[in-house]
Amino acid sequence: MARAAGPDPWTGVRDATAFGGRCAQPATSFDGLVDNEDCLNLNVFTPARTATAGLPVIVWLHGGSYAFGDGNVDAGT
User: Which ranges does the record mark as transmembrane (predicted)?
Assistant: First the structure.
């Protein structure tokens, strides 16, 4: 197994308005979603911007065991 390649650099603002791919799963659902090897994503949800006050942070790990669903299921709701 080869060592993972580093990320490609970018300049400017990174477009993070769409969810990343989900990890490969058994073919048990027919939801039309495509599995993707590039599936280690971090979803960050924030409320509308307020004053300079700090905001709480919640870390939620999807518990699907690479067998069911993905981190995009709840979409921050």
Answer: none
